[in-house]
Amino acid sequence: MKFQRLWIVLIPCTVLRFYLGLDSVNFLWFALLYLPFINWTVYWIMFSVRVGLNKLKGEDWIPVPKLRAFYVWYLHVPGSLVLSEIIHRGYVYNFIEG
Q: Three-class SS of residue 33?
């Protein structure tokens, strides 16, 4: 089940990487989002936004389990972008340059 979520995000990321071509941005930079300082900052910003939205709404509009589920989806995006870059480089190395 956990890998199914990754595949759902990885396939569009890989299609995007192949669509952009060779002379585009390097997706390996997205690995920086896994650094602890950036990762926890995003996590606490999401919680701060949750608290603010709940106060505006006046009720527990966004529960913590729902926010954590969204955070797990968020974590799949940078990993999928990095993995799609590795797939693209492997394709270019084996089939275009080879």
A: helix
Residues of the chain whose pLDDT is less than 70? 1-2, 97-98
The sign of the dihedral angle between the CA atoms of 78, 80, 82, 88 is negative
Q: What is the pLDDT of residues 51-60, one digit of tens each?
A: 999 999 999 9
Chain position carrying tokens 């396939």: 11
Let me know: does 85 contact 17? Beta carbons within 8 Å.
Answer: yes
Residues 6+ apart with CB under 8 A from 89: none
Residue 66 structure tokens: 């729902």
Count CB-CB contacts under 10 A for residue 88.
Answer: 19
Are the C-beta atoms of 2 and 59 separated by less than 8 Å? no
CA 83 vs CA 11, 43, 58, 62, 67: distances in Å: 10, 22, 41, 31, 25
